[in-house]
Design goal:
Length: about 200
């Protein structure tokens, strides 16, 4: 869920693939406007489901699933709050994102193990205006990082979103979503992280 329905979809997978070695194939799925909770509810849907997609890819099977989710959840959870409104339970807020990772990690194909990379929730104009949203994003990212660090066998990695929200050409005018240039930058910046993880797979 990294692009709104009214915008064209510019997946960062294209620039990520171009930065990686030639034998690395990157596939992507964007769900504009979806919360992580909705993604969990549709895990096995043949058209949009994450688990269905991962299960359906063989020869070779997927080595790494990159999950960037949570932006829409923060908007949903804080849109009715006052700037200093009541706190959201962090475990409840993060649970859908964790469940997306677990859905991939639980897939077994012989001895092959799937790894996941959690990309931190990016900043936004909404977070700059609303202290509850800003705190929730920081707390959720911290919780996601703890999940990654505690998962057995180092199968889950975490990386902060690689650049902050600013009013520049990396972001759309809505202050929430990346521009085409922003998606390109995201793929380029994630490439070194992905390379390190894939090296551990070999």
């Amino acid at each position: 869920g990294t692009a709104p329905p009214i915008h064209d979809l510019f997946p960062y997978g294209q620039s990520l693939e171009s930065e990686l070695e030639n034998d690395v194939v990157v596939r992507w799925r964007g769900l504009p406007g979806w919360t992580a909770q909705t993604m969990v509810e549709y895990l096995d849907d043949g058209n949009v489901g994450l688990r269905a997609a991962v299960n359906g890819i063989d020869n070779p099977p997927i080595s790494l699933v990159i999950i960037l989710a949570g932006t829409n959840d923060i908007g949903f959870l804080t849109s009715s709050m006052t700037p200093t409104g009541g706190a959201t339970d962090i475990d409840d807020a993060v649970k859908p994102i964790v469940n997306l990772h677990k859905a991939c990690l639980d897939i077994t194909k012989g001895e092959h193990k799937i790894r996941t990379l959690a990309v931190g929730i990016p900043g936004s104009a909404w977070q700059q205006m609303n202290s509850s949203a800003s705190k929730l994003a920081a707390d959720m990212n911290s919780s996601i990082q703890q999940f990654a660090q505690s998962y057995p066998d180092g199968l889950v990695s975490y990386t902060d979103f690689p650049f902050p929200y600013e009013k520049n050409d990396l972001w759309c005018s809505d202050g929430l979503h990346l521009s085409p240039e922003g998606y390109k930058r995201l793929g380029n910046d994630l490439a070194p992280v992905v390379k390190q993880i894939l090296e551990r797979c070999n």
